[in-house]
């Protein structure tokens, strides 16, 4: 997961003709171990002790329209459960731009999604991270960042920056374990909606979707 005040992100894009593999139980257990280790080392960066569950990942991906043109930006993909859900949703892997701070997670993402563009850098400063990468309006931004660890001003700036990179009315998708929205729901510059609580996730979570009209 990302950490502020880092140098400009470095893009790595690799192509492969291999099919996207089905996650195995062993892979899931290894991912949980990676997340737990990362959480112990950097609890404010990782923000969770386990990766997003399959149902939560599927709920987040459901707000992305794969027919809309442009890249799909994912912030804080971790070990890739939401990335996998996006691919299963019908988003071509080569359209994915993954911004991840943890270098070990970046290596894993490049192995699992070789056609995606993986950026190691600061997802909270996406203006700099994506300046030379996003060449057309994005169709969605999907975030697993621990937003509550950041001041509200920084969260609002992230949302505004993401909307600047996207088509009008394209979604900024964020999950949270909290009972309150990670970014205030009432605003004159964007709209906000929420999913039902995903009880099958551990812990239960909710998805918030922000759009700029």
Automatic annotation (TrEMBL):
Superkingdom to which the source organism belongs: Bacteria
Key word Transferase present: yes
InterPro entries, A to Z: SAM-dependent_MTases_sf
Molecular function per GO: methyltransferase activity
SUPFAM superfamilies in the cross-refs: S-adenosyl-L-methionine-dependent methyltransferases
CDD domains assigned to the protein according to its UniProt record, in alphabetical order: AdoMet_MTases
Protein name per the record: Phospholipid methyltransferase
